[in-house]
Amino acid sequence: IKKIGVLTSGGDAPGMNAAIRSVVRTCAYHNIECIGIYRGYQGMIEGDFKDMGPRSVNNIVNKGGTILKSARSNEFKTPEGRKKAHENLVKAGIDALVVIGGDGTFTGGLLFSTEFNFPIMGIPGTIDNDIFGTSHTLGYDTALNTVIEVIDKIRDTASSHNRLFFVEVMGRDAGHLALNAGIGAGAEEILIPEEDLGLERLLESLQKSKASGKSSSIVVIAEGDKIGKNVFELKDYVEANLPEYDVRVSVLGHMQRGGSPSCFDRVLASRLGVKAVESLIEGKESYMVGLQCDKISLTPLDQAIKGKTEIDRELLRVSDIMST
Ligand code: F6P
Asked: What is the pTM of this model?
């Protein structure tokens, strides 16, 4: 391997810059050239490349977002798009890729790698933590901390007005962010896609909490939950059935994806970047680097894509006990 290309793709996540920095500097350490590819796979199709040396990644370890920009490319889903992308890589002399992103990024990467026999390493970066083969994706820890910081603020106003707040948290089809942030922020109930609480039980639980003397409450709702109503419909439903409740809704949105990465995400990004580059040097291809039992591991990309991440059911019980 003489020249490695690095890109970020899909939804950005805090820690992506720290991972780019790690890839670039590990390349420099091993005397390998590194090329930054802008706007993910779209930039690969358009040949939007830039040489990256160790000084080109100064002062980014602490920055949210991604200096390489990100995109979700529809053109890369077509054989013509991928062919153009391959031609550009060959023209630039790039002989391996590190792709930083989530499920969609790895799916595109694996297809490309199989079609052109091109070595690829994936680094998991998404606030959703929904990738099999790693206990943590980059950005998840930071997003957890962002969410609890915001809910702490919501708690102040909820308790001043004796109100119930429904707080909608991101996570796509996974409830990791909602469940863990919900416990951390002391939520009364947590609605996640993996476990449908049901409307009846939600009402019962809210009634019980009022009767036990609680004057304000926070309910955390994952955006992909299965209760069958969106947060605003849920507010109307609860107010109609429990008139004693004054309900407000807060949809946290994209603020959850921004901000300076936590120390955990920065260290993880640094470790994953080193492993990704060194694995390519060792001749490994089509793997994802990840964290398992605090060790950096390799998972075949196809397993990382197909595998399902499980919710820790014990956390649901802990949450129940905490809302007593
Ligand atoms: O995958 C990260 C994520 O932030 C999800 O939690 C969310 O569902 C989605 O991306 C939002 O995507 P977009 O930024 O394209 O609206």
From this structure: 0.97
